[in-house]
Amino acid sequence: MNAWVFLGFAVICNTLANICLKRSSSQNQGFEMFLNIYFISGFFLFGLNLIFYTLALKSINVSVGYPVLVGISLAGVTIIAVMTLGEKLIFTQFLGLLCIAIGVLIVTSHTGR
Questions:
Q1: Which of 10, 27, 60, 97 is the most exposed place for a label (fewest CB within 10 A)?
Q2: CA-based end-to-end distance of the chain
Q3: Does the residue 91 lie in any domain?
Q4: Residue 96 forms part of a structural domain
Q5: What span, in angstroms and rounded, lies between the C-alpha atoms of 108 and 9?
Q6: How many distinct structural domains can be found in the chain?
Q7: How far is it, in rounded angstroms, from Cα 45 to Cα 60?
């Protein structure tokens, strides 16, 4: 399978894992937070993220793969948090996300290996 597909799966898993952990932390207090289905799902998704990311790194330089993983995941988490968790997106956050998107495009414009 194409390394970029693996990286895409890693991004999806990473994004969803963060949303699951946020849901877990907002629903429970203390130790119960770690027995919640959202926490368990987030833990599992982070594990899948690690597997897919490692597979992607077989063909993609880490200096390219990591910024793509983090940048796109950050945008995904922000969008989902605004749409489903009621978080607010202020103008400076939007500008920051735009800068990150431009940075990811620059980093991936010549992917090398």
A1: 27
A2: 16
A3: yes
A4: yes
A5: 17
A6: 1
A7: 21
